[in-house]
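SAMPLE LOG
Freezer: B-3
Tube label: C17
Construct: single chain, 495 aa
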Amino acid sequence: MMIDQALADLLGYALHRGLIAQEDHAWAANRLLQALGLDSWTETDAQERPLEDILKDILDWAVENGRIQEGTTSRDLFDTELMGRLTPRPSQVVREFNQRYAVSPEDATDWYYQLSQDTDYIRRYRIARDVKWVAPTPYGDLDITINLSKPEKDPRAIAAAKAAPQGGYPKCQLCRENEGYAGRMNHPARQNHRIIPITIDGKDWFFQYSPYVYYNEHCIVFNGQHVPMKIDRSTFRKLLDFVAQFPHYFVGSNADLPIVGGSILSHDHFQGGRYTFAMEKAPVEREISFPGFADVEAGIVKWPMSVIRLRSADDCRLVDLAEKILTAWRSYTDEAAFIFAETDGEPHNTITPIARMREGKYELDLVLRNNITTAEYPLGVYHPHQELHHIKKENIGLIEVMGLAVLPSRLKRELAELADALVEGRDLRADETLAKHADWAEELKTRYTFTQENAMAVIQKEVGVVFAAVLEHAGVYKCTAQGREAFLRFISSVN
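STRUCTURE (predicted):
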């Protein structure tokens, strides 16, 4: 039977990847049989093949035999349950991680990242489908990705989620209670998810990887308590403490206000990983100084957003200065530069901070943010403006700030169709899907002759230009003489 072969292959995969030992084989087989509603199977020799293919066979069987409903969400819930039955217990994972960490933090994260892939918590085969390229801009090479690894809900799943009881457990997708959770139609399964307890700034936090991996070793560091995001002195302290413990990783925080914050403001967390973003490579364009901090290197970064870079071997000095800058920025108003600390009692100024180790010193990038809205810009003055929404409309969070555009999945199809239409000379405005790109495309036609050979390359290059403009819109001080003058006025106010 096909199901017998698929089970043998899955058990063989688990043995090969070290998820189970030979002594676990019968136990693991019985655990899988239970999940499938079977009371027996005929053991056969395992065949080595991709995990995606093995799971597809099992899921197809489960649908055909009425074990699960057809649909991406139902299949994801079920294959996660299967992999969860093969994933080592949390205590085993934590013990192995800590033993490796005692030898090398790098070895510990290498092992844990591999485990997160082998258990299918990180679905490698989906991430491989993401479209990625690098686009040259005046600010350096920006990373562009069209994310396809996060599955879109099908209509049946949406309907089922709407009808499902709205439980308050776990409180959000970042809470520690997600570890091992079976999931539901409106909440992902996490039976194959394992988290690592860490202590930062004397507090209980946890370390995990993002299941969608927007960049290499994309990790999430989250508070053990479900408390809201807040940027303050302790944030800087925690970020620097983390990179001291994991010096091969950067770590940063989304801002703590809507529009300029991330997607989950209800749970205090950071994002980090092992990747060098364009912003990190960007040089200091102008050195600056702050009274009483002559020992801290400081400068304005050549970047479309407004970034102050601080460097010191003394992390305490960085924390002190970062707090000083944050306090000044929270209350800073400069009407001439359209910077308002608050309107009608609503605060607007905050900071997106990023920490890393570089050449034996602590480095802290402070990105000034402001979330004011107007009648002309109801989604935010320092937010991608309307003319860029055909490419990027969503909030500009930490990842975008650093120079990685995470673009919606619709663009894979739309940009391919746009390339064909430009080559064929079709009327873009007559096509409902392409009409939103028409103004942009018509401007491109004034600068390029599109052929079958160059169309997609040109479009990808120009998407990079759009993303650079997105970041310029999000910058509170523009990269102009007037903008730099206004930036320096703020710096002078920090005393």
